[in-house]
Amino acid sequence: MGEKYEIEAEIVSKPRAEYQTAEYLKLGLPPAPAAMVAEEVVSQGPNISEGKIEAAIRRHLGLPELPQEAKKGFLERLFKK
Question: Where exactly are the structural domains of the chain?
Answer without folding.
Answer: 16-79
